[in-house]
Write a structure and sequence with these properties.
By secondary structure, the chain is α+β, with helices and mostly antiparallel strands. Helices cover 43% and strands 19% of the residues. The chain is built from 29 helices and 27 strands. Strand 24 and strand 25 form a beta hairpin.
């Protein structure tokens, strides 16, 4: 500490012509503060990083690196801060403008005094050891993942989105490795058992979009709609490869074609490649010229469901959309990170309309976005779409289902308010104006506002800057069997003054017909026009088109009639309304809803709706029914699922029913059926199971302590792919029937190195905290909360949420709920964004506690 303080003051003494105000305002703090970012954006330009990294074959060995940073300074008054989230001993030497300078390293920053710099062009040469935090090193491959501020954890840089730069990369790797980066390969050479890849200068991109992948990969090159693409992967299952590859290229080609037409901007970068990475932390990451995907999201087989096919198409469309929305035009500061995500999701949904055969856009939009958005917005930890951010080291806390799922709902409402053509024209103007640069949401709203008479500023204030969802109610007056008047009102679920202007539809449902009316709910109370004198309906279905957002009222009289609705969107909306009201303790209890759902299993013709139904059934069974009652219900539920499975003619729906049966199986008879399917690898007639499916069954049987030795070891011997073998090996300990082994596993997670495979950790926690293990795992809850701040600083952006949800999502007891309450009471000044994450993750627990108590 003494050395750091002395270095800092010596540095300040070398700075000439400072006023007292200058000295007082100059500050070095961890992360990248908004103040620092603003100053650098005004001062720095023309940045290039010429990076050289030598990657050894052994993952434990350090990566030697060097870089030459060229940067232009408009003025040279304050010390220059380079971001590097590593220890001082990783920095070997620094030269500035061909002059070696002392290393001044303070709070994750290399400090270069003005006396070594000049106004205009500067060259900074640094020899260093690359940081490992975001290199995701495995035995025979590695990959960078640098969003939102992780570039600084690998190499010194100016790590903020509005300091775009070019990258010139040289990678030296083991001779049998492949490599791919943002730009095209310029040259390669082999010397002494190593291969060096020299890449051409990249496009101008933000630091979080810089990427390289290296390792033992197979490369496939194909033409898609006239564009040559390279696909790197590690898949060894030839059935998956043969089934998937052509579709993967085609979907990319179709997405690019759609986006070029919609935006009227040709694909803006030099190349378009992509990589499938085992157990990638996200579904995908939109690196310019080299998109990364989770391999399991791309490689499907003939047994895949429509849901899986849709998810893959959406994922590819989402990441491809980012090439325009996020990569070409990038948010200025990460408080607007939601902008790139909302447009990627929104455009992916549009692409699905034209690229996916027999796709029901409205149904898919409703099921994809609304339940996920409600899962956050119904909680006391709900956050607004746009949030304040003072330091980039907290940018990861901004991510979540509000920006990924509520924001597309908001954007669709905005498009409906403006009209599709006006909305599209505004987006084209925005992209053309800010291409290869940065923009803020207010700048976009300003452009869109010119294309509509609507007051977008006032509209934006509610939808974008306020949290929570509206609660919609109604009042119907009838006279002698006819409707006199229907009024519709809204208030905030928690903030009663919340008024969200929106359009949605209301259906008057009769035994012989349905009449649908549009509501423009732009006031506290509105009158439904056109219903005077209509027959009194059997019931009213709110949000019948699936475009409105909020907690809508339900009438229990609809329960026996939902399956009679011909429109699948109406049925899905009814399912969601019923489920949300059940969670809120309104109108229907968990048991009532479960009883109503069971007959629908064999009646629901739409695969996406069946998935929604079975998700609700699974949730009610495991989380909202007490263990003492669960066993009695299990037999009926198992029998109904198995019967529906036998009679269902559609293969994809049969698989959904089987996977639900697998999850529910609790009685000895059900577990024996499951074991027989796994042991003989003979699924029920018409169900196609893959290696991954059999692994899943083996894990389920281990979780339920099925009395057959060596299930997991035998499944391990069946797996041929080394990446999938390693995953199963990892999961064996948290699935052990020996509680001392599970304790040891949880304690191992307290060390950062044991949390590197975040997808594996989240899955392990799901099993560790499953309701069948809750009594022995509840002791981990408080320790899990204690680790949260460290996890936020060391893990990737989705890991804190995954950690919390996998930990708390299955509990239902007051004992578990009190752990959360006591923690928050004890830590009153806790980081507010992390506190919100806790409240979001614990909301299912709080609701389960209340609903199960009411059922006793």
């Amino acid at each position: 500490m003494r050395f750091v303080v002395c270095t800092f003051f010596v540095l300040l003494l070398t700075i000439k012509a400072f006023t007292q105000a200058d000295l007082k305002s100059y500050k070095v703090e961890p992360g990248v503060s908004e103040k620092l970012a603003t100053y650098r954006e005004r001062t720095l330009s023309s940045i290039n990083y010429n990076l050289k990294l030598v990657i050894p074959s052994q993952r434990q060995e350090p990566i030697a690196a060097s870089e030459i940073i060229t940067v232009s300074l408009s003025k040279n008054e304050l010390p220059l801060q380079l971001d590097f989230k590593e220890h001082r001993d990783h920095i070997k030497s620094i030269s500035v403008n061909q002059r070696e300078v002392p290393v001044a390293f303070i709070h994750e920053h290399i400090i270069i005094a003005p006396k070594f710099l000049k106004a205009g062009d500067n060259n900074i040469t640094i020899s260093f050891i690359a940081g490992d935090l975001s290199l995701n090193r495995n035995e025979d491959f590695l990959y960078t993942l640098l969003v939102p501020d992780r570039a600084r954890s690998v190499f010194p840089c100016f790590d903020q989105p509005d300091l775009k730069a070019t990258f010139t990369l040289s990678l030296t790797v083991p001779v049998d490795w492949q490599a791919v980066s943002n730009s095209s390969l310029a040259d390669s050479s082999i010397i002494s058992g190593s291969k060096t890849f020299q890449y051409a200068p990249s496009d101008t991109i933000s630091t979080y979009l810089f990427s390289f992948v290296a390792g033992k990969f197979t490369k496939i090159t194909k033409d898609a709609n006239g564009r040559l693409m390279n696909f790197y992967h590690r898949e060894t299952d030839t059935a998956k490869i043969n089934y998937s590859v052509d579709s993967i290229f085609r979907i990319h080609g179709d997405a690019l074609k759609f986006l070029e037409e919609y935006t009227q901007i040709p694909y803006p970068f030099k190349k378009f490649d992509f990589v499938a990475i085992p157990d990638f932390q996200y579904g995908g990451m939109e690196h310019v010229g080299a998109i990364d995907y989770k391999a399991s999201g791309l490689f499907l087989d003939s047994g895949s469901t429509k849901d899986q096919e849709n998810a893959r198409a959406n994922l590819i469309a989402h990441e491809t959309s980012h090439m325009w929305f996020g990569d070409l035009v990038t948010m200025k500061w990460f408080n607007d990170v939601w902008m790139k995500e909302v447009f990627a999701n929104f455009m992916a949904d549009k692409i699905a309309q034209v690229s996916q055969a027999n796709s029901n856009y409205d149904l898919k939009f409703l099921i994809d976005h609304f339940p996920a958005a409600y899962g956050v917005d119904r909680t006391l930890g709900a956050n607004a779409i746009r949030q304040h951010l003072s330091n980039l080291q907290e940018a990861g806390t901004l991510y979540g289902n509000i920006i990924y799922h509520k924001a597309p709902v908001m954007m669709r409402q905005l498009e409906r308010l403006m009209g599709k053509d006006a909305f599209r024209d505004g987006l084209r103007e925005y992209l053309a104006k800010f291409k290869f640069g940065n923009a803020t949401w207010p700048q976009l709203i300003g452009i869109l506002d010119k294309h509509t008479p609507a007051d977008l500023i006032a509209w934006n204030k509610v939808w974008v800057n306020e949290a929570g969802r509206p609660v919609v109610n109604y009042r119907i007056q009838t006279h002698h069997g006819t409707v006199s008047n229907i009024t519709i009102s809204q208030k905030g679920e928690y903030a009663s003054l919340l008024l969200a202007p929106q359009f949605f539809e209301v259906a008057l449902v009769y035994t012989d017909t349905i009449e649908e009316y549009t509501v423009q709910l732009d006031k506290r109370v509105v009158e439904l026009k056109g219903v005077e004198g209509k027959r009194e309906p059997l019931y009213i279905l709110f949000n019948s088109s699936g475009q409105g957002y909020g907690l809508f009222p339900v009438d229990k009289r609809m329960l026996p009639h939902v399956s009679e609705l011909k429109n699948p969107v109406m049925r899905a909306s009814a399912f969601i309304n019923l489920y949300e009201n059940m969670l809120s303790g309104k109108g229907v209890t968990p048991i009532q809803l479960l009883d109503a759902y069971l007959p629908m299993l064999s009646k629901e013709p739409e695969e996406l709706n069946l998935r929604l139904l079975t998700n609700h059934i699974n949730d009610i069974f495991w989380r909202l029914i007490l263990p003492s009652k669960r066993v009695a219900i299990a037999r009926t539920l198992e029998d109904r699922l198995w019967q529906s499975l036998q009679t269902e003619p559609v293969a994809n729906k049969k698989k959904i029913l089987f996977k639900t049966f697998q999850s529910i199986a609790l009685t000895k008879q059900a577990e024996e059926k499951l074991f027989a399917v796994w042991k003989d690898q003979k699924p029920p007639t018409g169900v196609k199971l893959t290696e991954d499916d059999y692994t899943s069954i083996a894990l389920t049987l281990a979780l339920k302590d099925y009395p057959a030795p060596g299930i997991l070891q035998q499944q391990l011997s069946r797996i041929k792919n080394v990446d999938r073998q390693n995953r199963l090996k990892y999961l064996m300990t948290p699935l052990s029937s020996d509680v001392t082994k599970r304790d040891a596993f949880f304690n191992s997670l307290k060390k950062e190195r044991n949390r590197e495979k975040e997808a594996w950790v989240a899955t392990a926690l799901d099993y560790l905290h499953h309701p069948l293990r809750a009594s022995s795992s509840i002791k981990y809850l408080n320790q899990s909360l204690d680790l949260l701040q460290e996890i936020q600083l060391t893990g990737d952006i989705f890991f804190p949420t995954a950690w919390l949800q996998s930990t708390f999502g299955s509990y239902q007891t007051t004992e578990a709920a009190n752990v959360v309450r006591e923690f928050l009471k004890k830590h009153r000044s806790y980081n507010p964004k992390l506190k919100a994450k806790i409240l979001q993750a614990a909301d299912p627990l709080f609701r389960a506690e209340k609903l199960t108590s009411a059922s006793q």
